[in-house]
Task: structure prediction
Amino acid sequence: MKKLPTVKKKLSFLSLTVTFMLILLFSALSCTNEQIEDEILEGIKEDTGIKISVPIQNPGFESGKANWGSTSNYAISGDEHSGSKAAKVTGSSGKIEQTVSVNQNTNYILKAWVKGNGKLSISGQTNDFNTSNFEEVSVSFNSGSSSSVTIVGTRDSGDVRFDDFTLNSESEGTTGSGQIIAQNVSTNGNQTGYGPENTVDGEIQNTESRWSSNGYTGKYITYDLGTTKTISSLKIAWFKGDERKAYFKIRVGNSTSSLSTIYDAKTNGSSGTTEGLETYDFDSVNARYVRISCFGNSSSSWNSIIETEIYGEGTNPGDTTPPGAVSNLRANAGNGSVSLSWDNPNDADFSNVSITYTGGSTTATGENKTISGLTNGTSYTFTVVAKDDSGNTSSSKSVTATPQGNTRGGNNPSDILSGLDKWKITFPLDGNGKDSTNDNRSGNDCNDRNRNASDSEIEMGDLIGEIPMPYAEYFYVEGDEVVFKAHCGGATTSGSSYPRSELRQMPGGNDNYWSMNDYQYLDVRVRATHLPVEKPEVSMVQIHGPGDEPLRVEYRSDEQGLHVVQNDDIEVDNVLPYSLGEQLRVTVTVQNGRVYCRIENESRPGLDAWTDDWESADSTGYFKVGCYTQSTMFLEDCKSGEGYDNESPNAYGEVRVKDMTLDVTY
Result:
């Protein structure tokens, strides 16, 4: 790694110190609250050692390829450090890049989680890395005369992955007044999408990240410091602060019912000359709650704050290390609701998570939360930030989901699919509700490592009504479809190397078989909606026999496309043009020892159906429908010698079923 030489600018530091002391002396003599010029404020801000966070768009690639340069230069991978996605650079000319705004002549440190053999570069500085697992790397640099810099990630060999970028200024100089981090922020009203949490997210340059509320009569925002602290100033960035004056009061106290005004700008207002942070000093006071009461502005009745920073005179900044971000963030959309789940960071001082979305915000201390009262058909992006006991916040993770109503009513799979009493389901979880991601069993082959008779996949026979957690995460309703989801770190059955969330027909109410000579019929409308990464393939419909699989309908995003497997060893590739998410109707008839299959792509009207029939290699069988992944986190062992990489445990397959009709002879 190339290191930038450190140059101490003693004259500049001395000048700033003298200037700061003169300002304090002048304030004491005049007993007024004069506005300090922006240039001087910037120098003081650097001198006090406060870190400045630079916004990076889509830092964890949860929004796919947005904001990271040419989309042809990289791919999105399910092998990630956290969340569900990361960037994957494969070709010699591949790269990711993003240009961000910075302050001039400022020391910064860029951090990212990486995997593989590649380079992380910014502003002429480079860190070379070569790691088989995700590791955090950093690059330090000085912005010099530049007001913007470009982050670049490239590969040296193999596949390289990038995830979870952060960019912060490095603290230098003496520590004077320390910033106090609020533990909670609330308000007596806000415009939809512009909640109070936006004022403490560090996004000073993003004017869309703000609190806004309409009214002349004292709309307020309250910051809870958690305990009583000594405070001596506030910095506030007002929306359109360079176009209008904001009228306000700063009030503090140890109870929200007994607050005292310590700074009154209801008449004079803010400066009206900057949209950056303005400093409001006052005599030191001990308080737990800080409230900014607002009374409109010089142009309208709106009150809008981009960012608020609270400082205590002579206080020790204490713990300033942010907690780790949540991982494995996922969302299940329901009827007017979305259920979120995630894994909390392992930090000993972890406190809670903050969840924001269009129209609201909430907090949680556990690892799941259901957001209700949402509008069906509207896409919502949920942003989750972890907080520790000191109020430090992690990098954010986001996931998008669209709640959907259904014309049949109900939120349970049995409300959508009739006849579920004739099926059972196999989940990608063991009998304790766990998966295989923490597998530490001995053995080097796929069978030894991926399954064990004592903890193989759990099966559930009663599918009528509500499906309990954690199983509802893999078998649930979204809109008018039932979703089957299986992750590649899931547990497996003794007869398979791959995880599944799949219905198994129960002829006669038990694990029986019907005869291939008798009439059997299945009609199902199904679509594949998500594939694993390294081996992107799922099975949707099967006939399973005691010796072979007479039928398997699969989709794979390569040259095989939508394909049909007949009697285990005959594959018919690309039976129909098909893309991920398109609606299929699969009709299967069994009679006189033969299998008759018809597949239609209902998303492409006018396209001819595919039909075929063949003699079954088995004399008995049963139907299976759902998501049977054809990949696993142990793929290298399962497909030894075939050049596959292991899947991320969180990579997954997903299949959705809309209708299903069953008619069998037993």
In short: Residues 1-51, 171-177, 438-444, 448-455 have pLDDT under 50 and may be disordered. Residues 10-30 form the longest helix (21 residues). The CA atoms of residues 405 and 625 lie 23 Å apart. The two ends are 70 Å apart (CA to CA).
